[in-house]
């Protein structure tokens, strides 16, 4: 991914022509970034699927953020549940009720908060670890890289879900546990990708020049390598969020989540435990399931679009 | 322990070394799957289905479960609880003791009609005038499954082993603690001499094992009796196969003295997921499912060929308080919250639980509101608190009680403990029990209003923190036997572990002098009315301490296929449970349904139609796939 759409290394020629010599370097850099952002958006818009995904994401984010105003935390209350157990969808309860008589429409809205939060944080954690491991392994090489990459390989061949289940089981049941369990098990792909990109970047002549001018390890990694792997990391994060959301739902569905929190996976687990599957109470199962699928799909569409904008060589069909 | 009071389905309760539940294999269905592999999966699935469909054509119909392969009548029961052991000396769980009930005969049994003592291995039993010497006449028509006769010597050996070997006393030791000597003067005569009178002599729930097999066993605390099949027994069924968390296979004992069972084979098949078990019942893969949720029972009631049995259960469902774990040698251990040592706090927690709502909402009416310790089904012993003794739901009074006890609210509205920190109780719950989690949600809100926080610790295996006393409150429940001695004994000081490292029979470390005094008196009381009165006084005492908040008596909610089981005995007969009885009545008496009912052919027609439709759809899908395949291949070129 030899991109230069975002902040490029100093050795790269500036993309935008310098208009006049009056502007400070800082202002120039900002102008360049604004331009590349605008160009990025122009190209992104041409990916119809990406736009659809983005629209879905914005909608879900808005719903999740405004949930305290629209449905309120009271929707989780079992003692003040408004309906009877397992009521079918009606005018009063658009998606019916659960076994406690709680409004499922409200619960699905409320559950989006936990699902999205866990998905985002776990993906960020996973990509952070992956980027750190990848850049350092690509930069230092030698025995350090060998050891780190063998560890990465080990994590790569371990089934992620099994590892996450094991982690979630030994740690106490909380939101943080789930985030950590997903984060520390799903980073190896990112690490591999980032390392490959780091190796490619570091073989360029300007890195050698920077070293010759006295640039230390930290300087090379943060000022030259990082900006060049950033696009990859961004695309990877977007893609990782959807798999994190799915993992969160899986763990919650398997009963490893915090039982007092409402999330989509948790709702599916509640439905299963209440016997909704065999009793045919579809309204309990379908909405959270569709919500998970839609959000995961939206993130994937966005991620793919970002990926193909940043790396035209991928040649992904629109 | 045995059927006296087994741990129920979820392996509740702490006592016994094997008391906790092992980790249930989780449903490991992955939700994530790359889209690309989906096509492959569909194709593979189509191929697999086409193959199986080919096998189950109308000419070659799939075997029906009720009359399998060679005309054998097989009864399949879906179970979920893991087996702790198949050794009668170790097993305490409901599933394992139910299996042992079927494979080993006891001295006496309980009548299915009214729970009265009926002859088992013993045809009659008499006591001496001082009630300290009991003589049992052992029947001569009982045989072990290897052909050897069952004699009084087997029974004497079983009891003596439990009296002399601590490992053999693990599960049922409480029965023989008061025995002085057990002898077998003749093959049909068993004599038990007691140290003190014991009221449970006609209710000794101890499986009698064959001496000639068991005297070869070395370490009774380790031997699980699950290697050498068939296992030599004398019950209505013989254990012929067992695989952990997979199945238990039992063959009918045709020479059983009470008469051979009607089914040829009984299989306990494991379904760790309740919904999967119900689906198997709907398809006819299993004949019987128990522990249904309200939604499942409502759905099954509407189906034909399925009968739902919803009857008063023999279980109580409680919230147990950690009273400060300690051992017999006086050492204290664990880390129970010190505020719970205050009776007023326990009463306040009691009064902030609305038991009626729990019955109405969580059990949706499939339970009876909890009052005393012993379920109302055992009406001789059932006790209810009087008007002013009752700790009824009253949050305002609970708040007042907490204020009086010195646990006042701080600025943030949280009650503060003596150490200045807000009160927050850890509630131990079974991750596999939906009811625990559901009730936990209510507790969180009720006690939250009171200013007390809770942390719901839902674990697959609650045994470790439970035995270590590392909890504040815990969901608890036991199945109660017609003779309540055992469930009462688990709250005595004598049941405490010897040292913090040992495992006692205790449920939750309760040790109360007054209660113990009453316990000893009831055990020695031969007059049924007086004994019942003492048992009620014990429950009253237990209630007043506030250690055990019995929230509900859940119903037995079970379902069976009427096209596979024509009739089956419940216990008690009028309205009772089928699974987990105090005896072998249900499976022994179960009548297979007629071998060619009209429903069967209807079912197979449906199957055929379904298969044909499925094949057509799959063929279409496969064709479509092939077309797409080709088109993409063309595109590539």
UniProtKB/TrEMBL annotation, chain A:
Keywords from the named record: Membrane, Transmembrane, Transmembrane helix, Transport
Family: Belongs to the binding-protein-dependent transport system permease family.
SUPFAM superfamilies given in the database record: MetI-like
Subcellular location as annotated: Cell membrane; Membrane
Pfam families the record matches: BPD_transp_1 (PF00528), OppC_N (PF12911)
The UniProt record lists the keyword Membrane: yes
UniProt keyword annotation of Transmembrane helix present: yes
Organism of derivation: Streptomyces minutiscleroticus
Membrane topology recorded in Swiss-Prot or TrEMBL: Multi-pass membrane protein
Region entry Disordered, spans: 1-27
Chief site of localization: membrane
Organism placement in taxonomy: Bacteria, Bacillati, Actinomycetota, Actinomycetes, Kitasatosporales
Protein name per UniProt: ABC transporter permease
Gene Ontology biological-process annotations: transmembrane transport
Transmembrane portions of the chain: 49-71, 114-135, 282-303
ABC transmembrane type-1 domain mapped to chain residues: 112-303
Stretches with biased composition (Low complexity): 1-10
TrEMBL record, chain B:
Subcellular location(s) per record: Cell envelope
Gene Ontology MF terms: peptide transmembrane transporter activity
GO cellular component term, pick one: periplasmic space
Keywords: Membrane, Signal, Transmembrane, Transmembrane helix, Transport
Superkingdom assignment: Bacteria
Predominant localisation class: other
InterPro entries: Peptide/Ni-bd, SBP_5, SBP_5_dom
Pfam families: SBP_bac_5
Location of the Solute-binding protein family domain: 118-489
Region (Disordered), start-end ranges: 1-31
Residue runs in coiled coils: none
Record's compositionally biased regions (Basic residues): 20-31
Similarity-based family: Belongs to the bacterial solute-binding protein 5 family.
Name of protein: ABC transporter substrate-binding protein
Native species: Streptomyces minutiscleroticus
Upper classification of the organism: Bacteria, Bacillati, Actinomycetota, Actinomycetes, Kitasatosporales
């Amino acid at each position: 991914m030899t991109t230069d759409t975002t902040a490029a290394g100093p050795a790269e020629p500036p993309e935008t022509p310098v208009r006049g010599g009056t502007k400070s370097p800082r202002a120039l850099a900002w102008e360049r970034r604004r331009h590349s952002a605008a160009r990025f958006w122009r190209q992104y818009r041409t990916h119809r699927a990406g736009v659809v995904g983005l629209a879905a994401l914005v909608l879900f984010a808005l719903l999740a953020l405004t949930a305290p105003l629209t449905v309120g935390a009271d929707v989780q209350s079992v003692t003040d549940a408004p309906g009877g157990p397992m009521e079918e969808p009606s005018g009063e309860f658009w998606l019916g009720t659960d076994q406690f008589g709680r409004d499922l429409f409200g619960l699905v809205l409320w559950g989006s908060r936990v699902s999205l939060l866990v998905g985002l944080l776990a993906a960020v954690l996973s990509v952070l670890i992956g980027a750190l491991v990848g850049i350092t392994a690509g930069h230092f090489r030698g025995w350090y890289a060998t050891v780190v990459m063998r560890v990465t390989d080990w994590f790569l061949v371990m089934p992620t879900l099994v590892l996450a289940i094991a982690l979630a089981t030994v740690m106490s049941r909380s939101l943080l546990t789930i985030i950590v369990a997903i984060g520390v098990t799903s980073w190896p792909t990112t690490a591999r990708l980032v390392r490959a990109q780091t190796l490619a970047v570091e073989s360029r002549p300007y890195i050698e020049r920077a070293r010759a001018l006295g640039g230390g390890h930290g300087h090379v990694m943060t000022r030259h390598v990082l900006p060049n792997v950033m696009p990859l990391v961004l695309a990877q994060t977007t893609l990782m969020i959807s798999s994190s959301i799915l993992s969160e739902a899986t763990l919650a569905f398997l009963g490893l989540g915090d039982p007092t929190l409402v999330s989509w996976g948790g709702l599916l687990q509640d439905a299963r435990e209440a016997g909704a599957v065999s009793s045919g109470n579809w309204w309990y199962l379908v909405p959270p399931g569709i919500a998970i699928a839609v959000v995961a799909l939206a993130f994937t569409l966005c991620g793919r679009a970002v990926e193909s904008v940043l790396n035209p060589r991928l040649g992904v069909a629109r | 322990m045995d059927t006296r009071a087994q741990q129920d389905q979820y392996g509740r309760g702490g006592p016994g070394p094997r008391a906790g539940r092992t980790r249930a294999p989780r449903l490991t269905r992955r939700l994530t799957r790359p889209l690309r592999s989906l096509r492959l999966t569909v194709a593979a699935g189509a191929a697999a289905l086409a193959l199986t469909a080919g096998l189950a054509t109308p000419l070659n119909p799939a075997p029906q479960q009720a009359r399998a392969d060679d005309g054998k009548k097989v009864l399949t029961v879906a179970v979920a609880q893991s087996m702790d052991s198949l050794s009668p000396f170790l097993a305490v769980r409901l599933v394992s003791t139910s299996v042992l009930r079927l494979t080993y005969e006891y001295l006496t049994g309980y009548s299915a009609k009214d729970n009265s003592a009926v002859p088992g291995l013993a045809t009659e039993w008499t006591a001496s005038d001082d009630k300290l010497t009991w003589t049992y006449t052992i029947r001569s028509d009982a045989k072990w499954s290897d052909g050897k006769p069952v004699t009084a010597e087997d029974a004497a050996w079983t009891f003596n082993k439990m009296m002399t070997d601590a490992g053999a006393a693990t599960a049922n030791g409480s029965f023989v603690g008061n025995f002085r000597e057990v002898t077998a003067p003749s093959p049909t005569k068993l004599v038990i001499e007691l140290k003190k009178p014991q009221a449970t002599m006609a209710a000794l729930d101890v499986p009698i094992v064959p001496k000639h097999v068991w005297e070869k066993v070395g370490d009774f605390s380790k031997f699980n009796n699950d290697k050498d099949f068939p296992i030599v027994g004398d019950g209505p069924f013989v254990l012929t196969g067992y695989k952990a968390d997979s199945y238990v296979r039992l063959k009918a004992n045709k020479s059983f003295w009470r008469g051979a069972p009607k089914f040829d084979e009984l299989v306990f098949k494991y379904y760790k997921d309740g919904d999967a078990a119900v689906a198997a019942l709907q398809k006819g893969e299993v004949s019987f499912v128990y522990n249904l949720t309200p939604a499942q029972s409502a759905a099954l009631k509407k189906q034909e060929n399925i009968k739902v049995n919803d009857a008063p259960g023999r279980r109580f469902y409680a919230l147990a308080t950690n009273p400060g774990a300690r051992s017999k040698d006086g050492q204290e251990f664990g880390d129970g919250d010190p505020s719970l040592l205050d009776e007023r706090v326990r009463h306040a927690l009691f009064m902030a639980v609305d038991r009626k709502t729990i019955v109405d909402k969580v059990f949706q009416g499939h339970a009876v509101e909890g009052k005393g310790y012993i379920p109302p089904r055992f009406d001789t012993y059932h006790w209810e608190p009087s008007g002013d003794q009752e700790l009824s739901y009253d949050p305002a009074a609970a708040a007042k009680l907490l204020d009086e006890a010195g646990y006042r609210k701080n600025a943030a509205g949280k009650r503060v403990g003596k150490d200045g920190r807000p009160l927050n109780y850890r509630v131990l719950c079974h991750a596999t029990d939906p009811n625990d989690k559901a009730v936990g949600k209510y507790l969180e809100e009720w006690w939250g209003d009171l200013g007390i926080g809770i942390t719901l610790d839902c674990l697959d295996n609650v045994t470790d923190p439970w035995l270590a006393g590392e909890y504040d409150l815990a969901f608890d429940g036991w199945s109660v036997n017609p003779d309540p001695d055992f469930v009462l004994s688990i709250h005595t000081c004598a049941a405490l572990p010897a040292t913090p490292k040992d495992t006692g029979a205790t449920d939750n470390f309760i040790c109360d002098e007054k209660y113990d005094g009453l316990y000893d008196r009831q055990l020695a009381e031969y007059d049924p009315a007086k004994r019942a009165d003492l048992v009620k006084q014990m429950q009253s005492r237990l209630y007043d301490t506030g250690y055990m908040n019995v929230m509900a008596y859940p119903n037995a909610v079970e379902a069976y296929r009427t096209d596979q089981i024509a009739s089956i005995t419940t216990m008690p007969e009028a309205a009772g449970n089928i699974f987990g009885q105090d005896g072998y009545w249900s499976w022994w008496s179960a009548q297979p349904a007629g071998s060619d009912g009209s429903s069967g052919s209807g079912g197979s027609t449906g199957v055929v139609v379904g298969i044909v439709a499925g094949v057509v759809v799959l063929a279409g899908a496969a064709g479509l796939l092939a077309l797409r395949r080709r088109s993409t291949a063309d595109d590539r070129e």
